[in-house]
Amino acid sequence: MIRVDAVWLAVQPLDMRAGTESALARVVAVFGEARPHHAYLFANRRANRMKCLVHDGIGVWLAARRLNAGKFVWPLDGASTQSLTRVQLDALVLGLPWQRLGEAGIIRTI
User: Fold this and answer.
1) What pLDDT tens digit does each residue of the chain (110 aa) get?
2) Which of 88, 60, 62, 55 has its CA nearest to residue 74?
């Protein structure tokens, strides 16, 4: 398996026709660099398709996922990039509201 230490999400959509070289160029443009053992996620405009580029330290891997129904929960505004935890990534890939997991989902006494 490919080791992934950090997961990054790009808010702006990516043309899903992009291949490995185009996706890598977009990662460098958006994130400034492609770091080893980091995963970079992009969605299309409708957010029903997602691509993930992973730099494994030797080369790059590009994977795609498509939802047959519904769409990925993708941020629409705010920062141009976000980091995700492994739990948030697992929820995102399933199409669940990943923003509610982690610190954002904590309920405290008022």
Assistant:
1) 788 999 999 999 999 999 999 999 999 999 999 999 999 999 999 999 999 999 998 999 999 999 888 888 888 766 788 888 888 888 888 888 887 776 655 656 65
2) 88
